């Protein structure tokens, strides 16, 4: 991801567009197929159908773009209309345009079997495995689409920073790059509600049984959301590389910051979490203290990372710590103050002074940053309610929540789209498992230790060498 440099050549962006159109379409196809095979009737719900429709629409757009590029690459006569200068499009109006060889081939295909897009063909062949006979499929009537130069693709070509293009493609490069960034932006917009929509499907398993009792569904959600993280990173990185405005940020290559300051990110996440806490607890939020482990003060607190993803993880951890602290020390103003969903009600002395109604500041949440030459560990500690030992194993389970009174879907605010500043304080049931997925995607980890009634420690491990490793894709 870093080899592009802060200002990649347009030809490199075009080569990456071609790779991503194929790579992302395959990933989307796998998730579409898996959504169709969900157990317990979950595949037939309205939410599953809506998400499948989004995946199919995005798949069709990506494979359509790839096929347009492949045809044009092979033959100048097959250039899509939108790649031609405006004056050429004007000359080739519907009234004057003569049929091309491509038009004649399309007419000949009328009534014939529909060609299977290459992304889906590759996915189907992979899913079949070598032990079974492949299904009959029409890959494409155009043999040029099978050219080896189109199949031997990589995300970044270390041998050639400016991939050679056919002469007839040179003038079309800006058109293709603009078309692809527009396409990716529309896919991001379409898929923004995916996490929320999928989460609305799980409560159908309740109250007959808890979500943690369905390991196959949990395994699906892990694969589904890990795949989504990878796709969003690929899309976000390409959009940032293509956007000249994004290059004004120092030390950034796409969405990756080569000198991500963990202290600054922690401060920003603390401010955002405090805002959410104050909205839910009558303007009160625990203070956040940030400290660097003095034993390793000579090690840098900066590393190569994606700041927005680090912020997301710390934001979720801080929300949980703040809520646990408020539930313990401010039970009379806490939402659902009659007790947690585990049935425990914690009573304490009034946090208000006898002489005035000014609340005494609750105990702080502490962030301790411990840098070493190989990794950085960020510990978020609180002295809140803690987690009962019997429930500690469930906190990484999707749709599991200790927020009382409602199901995870009911805990979502109206019209919640996934924005952090619209996020519920608790009860969504996705914060911790998604945070762990983010941490592990970047080769780190997330570990929780807690004592009921005493407090909780969460260790976020960030590896410095994650950018040199290969992405682990779960199909």
TrEMBL record:
Gene Ontology biological process: regulation of glucose metabolic process
EC number(s) on file: 2.7.11.-
Family: Belongs to the PDK/BCKDK protein kinase family.
Gene3D superfamilies linked: Alpha-ketoacid/pyruvate dehydrogenase kinase, N-terminal domain (1.20.140.20), Histidine kinase-like ATPase, C-terminal domain (3.30.565.10)
Protein name: Protein-serine/threonine kinase
Catalytic activity, reaction form: L-seryl-[pyruvate dehydrogenase E1 alpha subunit] + ATP = O-phospho-L-seryl-[pyruvate dehydrogenase E1 alpha subunit] + ADP + H(+)
Organism: Geranomyces variabilis
Record-linked Pfam families: BCDHK_Adom3, HATPase_c
UniProt keyword Hydrolase present: no
Domain Histidine kinase/HSP90-like ATPase: 305-466
SUPFAM superfamilies in the cross-refs: alpha-ketoacid dehydrogenase kinase, N-terminal domain, ATPase domain of HSP90 chaperone/DNA topoisomerase II/histidine kinase
InterPro entries named among the record's database cross-references: AK/P_DHK_N_sf, BCDHK/PDK_N, BCKD/PDK, HATPase_C_sf, HATPase_dom
GO cellular component terms, A-Z: mitochondrial matrix
């Amino acid at each position: 991801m870093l080899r592009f440099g802060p200002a990649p050549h347009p030809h490199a962006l075009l080569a990456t567009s071609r790779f991503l159109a194929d790579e992302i379409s395959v990933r989307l196809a796998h998730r579409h197929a898996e959504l169709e095979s969900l157990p317990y009737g979950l595949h037939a719900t309205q939410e599953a159908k809506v998400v499948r429709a989004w995946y199919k629409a995005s798949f069709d757009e990506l494979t359509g773009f790839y096929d347009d590029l492949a045809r044009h690459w092979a033959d100048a006569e097959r250039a899509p209309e939108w790649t031609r200068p405006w004056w050429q499009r004007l000359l080739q109006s519907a009234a004057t345009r003569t049929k091309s060889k491509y038009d004649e081939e399309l007419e000949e295909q009328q009534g014939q079997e529909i060609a299977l897009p290459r992304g889906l063909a590759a996915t189907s062949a992979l899913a079949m495995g070598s032990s079974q006979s492949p299904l009959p499929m029409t890959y494409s009537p155009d043999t040029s689409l099978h050219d080896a130069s189109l199949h031997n693709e990589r995300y970044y070509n270390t041998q050639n920073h400016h991939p050679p293009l056919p002469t007839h493609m040179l003038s079309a490069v800006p058109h293709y790059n603009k078309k692809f960034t527009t396409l990716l932006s529309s896919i991001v917009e379409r898929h923004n509600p995916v996490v929320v929509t999928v989460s609305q499907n799980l409560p159908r398993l309740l109250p007959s049984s808890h979500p943690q009792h369905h390991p196959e569904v949990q395994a699906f959600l892990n694969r589904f959301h890990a795949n989504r993280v990878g796709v969003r990173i690929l899309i976000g990185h390409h959009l940032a590389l293509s956007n000249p405005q994004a290059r004004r940020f120092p030390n950034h290559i796409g969405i990756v910051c080569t000198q991500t300051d963990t202290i600054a990110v922690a401060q920003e996440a603390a401010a955002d979490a405090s805002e959410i806490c104050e909205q839910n607890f009558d303007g009160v939020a625990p203070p956040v203290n940030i400290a660097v482990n003095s034993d390793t003060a000579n090690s840098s607190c900066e590393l190569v990372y994606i700041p927005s993803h680090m912020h997301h993880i710390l934001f979720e951890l801080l929300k949980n710590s703040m809520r646990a602290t408020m539930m313990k020390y401010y039970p009379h103003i806490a939402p659902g103050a009659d007790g947690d969903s585990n049935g425990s009600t914690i009573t304490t002395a009034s946090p208000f002074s006898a002489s005035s109604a000014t609340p005494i500041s609750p105990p702080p949440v502490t962030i301790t940053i411990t840098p070493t030459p190989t990794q950085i560990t960020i510990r978020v500690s609180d002295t809140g309610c803690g987690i009962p030992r019997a429930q500690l194993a469930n906190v990484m389970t999707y749709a599991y929540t200790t927020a009382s009174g409602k199901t995870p879907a009911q805990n979502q605010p109206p019209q919640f789209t996934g924005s952090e500043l619209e996020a519920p304080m608790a009860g969504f049931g996705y914060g911790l498992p998604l945070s762990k997925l983010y941490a592990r995607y970047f080769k780190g980890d997330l570990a929780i230790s807690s004592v009921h009634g005493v407090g909780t420690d969460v260790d976020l491990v960030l590896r410095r060498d994650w950018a040199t490793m290969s992405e682990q894709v779960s199909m």
